[in-house]
Amino acid sequence: MASTSVTSGLLRLRALSPNHRIGGRVVKIRGKLRFGCPNLKWGGGRSKLRFCVRAVEVSEGSGGKREKNAEEVERGVADGGGEIARFMGAISALPAVRLMKKSVSNNFAIGAFFAILIVVVAVREIAGKKQRYEQHGSVADLVKRGQIRSDRRSISGPLKYDDPFNNPLVKVSKSNSTVEMCGKVYRLAPVTLTEEEQSVHQKRRSRAYQWKRPTVFLKEGDPVPPDVDPDTIRWIPANHPFATTATEIDEDLAQNNVYQKEGIPFRIKAEHEALQRKLEALQNEQKLNKIAIDPNNVREFERPFKSFSKPQEQVDRNLSSNQPNGVAKAPESERVLDLAENSSAADE
Amino acid sequence: MTSLHLLHLSRNAPSSPYLLSSFFSPFPLKTLNLKSKHTSPGPALCVLQWNRKPELAGPTPRVAVITSGKGGVGKTTTTANIGLSLARLGFSVIAVDADVGLRNLDLLLGLENRVNYTAIDVLNGDCRLDQALVRDKRWSNFQLLCISKPRSKLPLGFGGKALIWIVDSLKSGPSTPDFILIDCPAGIDAGFITAITPANEAILVTTPDITALRDADRVTGLLECDGIKDIKMIVNRVRTDLIRGEDMMSVLDVQEMLGLALLGVIPEDAEVIRSTNRGYPLVLNKPPTLAGLAFEQAAWRLVEQDSMKAVMIEEAPKKRGFFSFFGG
């Protein structure tokens, strides 16, 4: 037995016995909704929706399959408050619902519909995630490019909390028997090691490990120098990855370098001085070469603004000789030379 | 507000520092004297966010070598985190990466791109010592000194002496550091000998497994033979859940085997790997992690020359009652 009641669009189906079931085809929702422009009747005029519910009681008690049309309710929702009717119509217009109507097994159709829906949603989600993952221009790219520091991400500033033994994350109980760290309560067990036990361990170790700090480092194969305790020798293999017995630098010099507080470091200074000496030597050689060649002859071949080799005294002399008569009286070539001199001085 | 309130308390109530230090420090009288030296009021103190500051014990600079014997137990991680914790506590720190062949401290600190000169360059006269120190931009009172570049060789003729010169030079400088932490290489080879030479105290890092413990015992013996008597240990990568199930030695078992005072117990934490990847030490993480907090506490004890009086033990989870399903 099944009872069906329809009250203004509200449909209630109540099964009274587990043996009774409502067949897949018995509930029919029918509606007409035309979306074609000339035939569109949604919301205007009289709706011709027909809402048909048919409940079928199936009883399997006597072996044969018996179907009984228990009740057939047909109702046409025609008048103005047809929101539900419109909704029903929209549902019935869906292709999936049409398919349900048409198919032989409605259960299968519903199942297939939901399965497809789930697959579509899952595929869309996966595709979206992939796209998001591949999307460029995130903050991670700035970190990769070295524009922002990754270590500062999610950390606004240096942290200062009150006390490592008493802060919101570490709370020792009043009785000192438990401690709560990061939300977890631990029991505190007292340390039992005594000073006597410590000294016993020290004595044990002093007996077990006899060791002298090596003070002499020798390459394997080197002769042992006289007056050296063999226990203090450390033998270093020739192919040791990071240790060497060979020293490029004098020990005293190294010590001085470490103690140097200001000024130019030793090697930099030494290299600079060596370069300076080399440069001076080269300049001397050049001077010697220049002496061999007559400078007046050379100057004739040089362009006027390039003739920086002219001594400053000579230029000054020229200027001073021209000064009483005014600068305008100086020859053209000399003025060009002066300009070139001034510009070179400004560059320096 | 908190700091101001507590400063006010410490100034007016002379018993409060004694009470605080007696819980954490074995030398209450000494700390009391030190406290009385530091109580001069100053405007800078008002902005401090600390409820209290650890009292620096012992003469400065304190030169501590961080060693283990076995590799991979967390020496470099400990050096980076303790060093930055000390810097955060307001002490000037110089961390020396004495791992000549395989230096990593610069990577852990995120300073690898800023190391231009090393101690070898200082010895050779290519630069001065102050030029070889790499200042951390996050905490300017923390500096790094690398002994050598990966492909250069350390002349062992004066390897140990060179570190002594460096320490002496830093002492005589305009600003003497409070702490010089030396990150020691693994093993007991030439690098180890060089690293322990200038040290006055040692921090032995070990893990609660038998292989690390044997090496730690050997290294402790060598340090004691060399005259370093102040040795404290940090037990790293402790898993309290395994200890509860008796699959791992407890910290007290480790202490019983080595007979050393405990400076800290660092729980295993996945954040250690993340912080290494980022080049941002654990103690700077926000929010702080369990391991970061443990490093902070160890640094505090190091300053005060204190040791742990109690260790944390994970308790078995409470049995769920019948009504626990309903939230009871």
How does this model look, in words?
- The complex is a heterodimer of chains A (348) and B (328).
- By secondary structure, chain A is an alpha+beta fold.
- Chain A is built from 10 helices and 11 strands.
- In chain A, a hairpin with a 2-residue loop joins strand 1 and strand 2.
- In chain A, helix 2 packs antiparallel against helix 3.
- Chain A is flat and about 110 Å long.
- Chain B is an alpha/beta fold.
- Chain B contains 14 helices and 10 strands.
- In chain B, strands 3-4-2-6-1-7-8-9 form an 8-stranded mixed sheet, with helices on both faces.
- In chain B, strand 3 and strand 4 form a beta hairpin.
- In chain B, helix 2 crosses helix 3 and helix 8 runs parallel beside helix 9.
- The longest helix of chain B is centred in the middle third of the chain and has 16 residues.
- At the A-B interface, strand 8, helix 5, strand 11, helix 6 and helix 7 of A face helix 6, helix 7, strand 5, helix 8 and helix 9 of B.
- Strand 11 of chain A pairs parallel with strand 5 of chain B, so a sheet runs across the interface.
- Chain B: One of its GO terms (cellular component) is cytosol.
Task: Outline the secondary-structure elements.
The complex is a heterodimer of chains A (348) and B (328).
Chain A: E1 2-7, E2 10-15, E3 27-29, E4 49-59, E5 66-77, H1 83-93, H2 95-102, H3 106-134, H4 139-144, E6 170-172, E7 178-181, E8 184-190, H5 195-208, E9 216-219, E10 233-236, E11 243-244, H6 251-259, H7 266-292, H8 295-301, H9 312-322, H10 332-347
Parallel strand pairs in A: 9-10
Antiparallel strand pairs in A: 1-2, 3-4, 4-5, 6-7, 7-8
Helix pairs in contact in A: 2-3
Chain B: H1 2-12, H2 15-24, H3 28-38, E1 62-67, H4 75-88, E2 93-97, H5 105-109, H6 119-124, H7 129-132, E3 134-135, E4 142-146, E5 154-155, H8 159-171, E6 179-183, H9 190-196, E7 201-206, H10 210-225, E8 230-238, H11 240-244, H12 251-258, E9 261-267, H13 271-278, H14 290-304, E10 310-314
Helix pairs in contact in B: 2-3, 4-14, 8-9
